[in-house]
């Protein structure tokens, strides 16, 4: 099996794991929050991250992956930013209507595209832009209902979108810049995310629910669903880093909207949630957008692969010809009167590197 086929199988596996685990945890948390009354979402997320870190620590002890330390400041900043983005999303949901919160989630894709275009010089073809527009339109029809605006909720939503976009872009950038796997990055950043949410979680949850998480009555049923939710979260957190590392932040957001549609469909089929023609039409349009996006991404990836394979023989031929090599900046150059090796270097900021982001 070729490396390309292995990569494709790995990507499909990561996407499948992300969908299954995310839908499962939504169902579990819905039972925990709606049925059992445990509404402390931020504190629950901090427990998810603590369990994830403990699970990864056991996996490291069993030598299932290798610990690879790198820039501690980058890890700390990334972990804290991730924790802040989760807290802001929860606050946005608490201070806004459900419809406006869905609009906030929809805004993450165009914001990510804008940031990558401005700061990373990544180019998105018109076909990709068109497919994303279809996707966002479908999800909007299916999920957005009322749009009640308020100043505090709007500010929180803007901050949530920005921090979420930057955190997801950093996930992709850090993995490729420091050559670390999704597991290695998750293991090192988990403690910072968990501590950030563990400290702020009870305060945020108390602000949103007017209840104290420590005064809640923990029945055996509540504890069971909390433990189940934490166990599923290990797969959710791992698959998140895995998908962003193998694809891109935009693809991960597209996958997130697929999960939303699946959750809506599941709620209608099994839980008999309210459903109308808008939900059905929106899900159909969103699925079309996802299929078109996947198709165009596959076509562009194949084109890039063929271009790369065509350029490699040309580069090898140019290396054999000294004249061509000198014209390409890879011949022998004089440096300060001496003779030096002719590798011409062009220094550019790492954050502007296009090679870190492939659609």
TrEMBL record:
Its main location: membrane. It is a multi-pass membrane protein. The chain crosses the membrane at residues 12-33, 45-62, 74-93, 127-145, 151-170, 222-244, 278-296. InterPro entries: EmrE-like, Sugar_P_trans_dom, TPT_transporter. One of its GO terms (cellular component) is membrane. It is found in: Membrane. Residues 21-294 form the Sugar phosphate transporter domain. Keywords: Membrane, Transmembrane, Transmembrane helix, Transport. The keyword Transmembrane applies. This is UDP-xylose transporter 3. It comes from Raphanus sativus (Radish). The gene is LOC108856804.
């Amino acid at each position: 099996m070729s490396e390309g086929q292995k990569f494709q199988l790995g990507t499909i596996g990561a996407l499948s794991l992300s969908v299954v685990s995310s839908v499962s945890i939504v169902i579990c948390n819905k039972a925990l929050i709606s049925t059992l009354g445990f509404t402390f979402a931020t504190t629950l997320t901090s427990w998810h991250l603590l369990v994830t870190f403990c699970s990864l620590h056991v996996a490291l002890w069993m030598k299932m992956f290798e610990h690879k330390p790198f820039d501690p400041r980058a890890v700390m900043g990334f972990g804290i930013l991730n924790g802040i983005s989760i807290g802001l999303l929860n606050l946005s949901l608490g201070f806004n209507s459900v419809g406006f919160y869905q609009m906030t989630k929809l805004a993450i894709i165009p914001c990510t595209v804008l940031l990558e275009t401005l700061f990373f010089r990544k180019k998105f073809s018109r076909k990709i832009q068109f497919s994303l527009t279809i996707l966002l339109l479908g999800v909007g029809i299916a999920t957005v209902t009322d749009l009640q605006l308020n100043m505090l909720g709007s500010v929180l939503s803007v901050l949530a979108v920005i921090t979420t976009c930057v955190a997801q872009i950093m996930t992709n950038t850090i993995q490729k810049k420091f050559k670390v796997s999704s597991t290695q990055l998750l293991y090192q950043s988990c403690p910072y995310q968990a501590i950030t949410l563990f400290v702020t979680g009870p305060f945020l949850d108390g602000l949103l629910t007017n209840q104290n998480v420590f005064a809640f009555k923990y029945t055996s049923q509540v504890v069971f669903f909390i433990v189940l939710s934490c166990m599923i979260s290990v797969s959710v957190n791992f698959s998140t880093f895995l998908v962003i590392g193998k694809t891109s932040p935009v693809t991960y957001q597209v996958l997130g909207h697929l999960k939303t549609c699946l959750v809506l469909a599941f709620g209608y089929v099994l839980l008999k949630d309210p459903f109308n023609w808008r939900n059905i039409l929106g899900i159909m349009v969103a699925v079309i957008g996802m299929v078109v996006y996947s198709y165009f991404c596959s076509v562009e990836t194949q084109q890039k692969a063929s271009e790369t394979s065509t350029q490699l023989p040309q580069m090898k031929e140019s290396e054999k010809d000294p004249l061509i090599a000198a014209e390409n900046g890879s011949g022998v150059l004089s440096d300060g009167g001496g003779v030096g090796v002719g590798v011409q270097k062009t220094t550019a900021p790492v954050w502007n590197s296009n090679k870190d982001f492939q659609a």
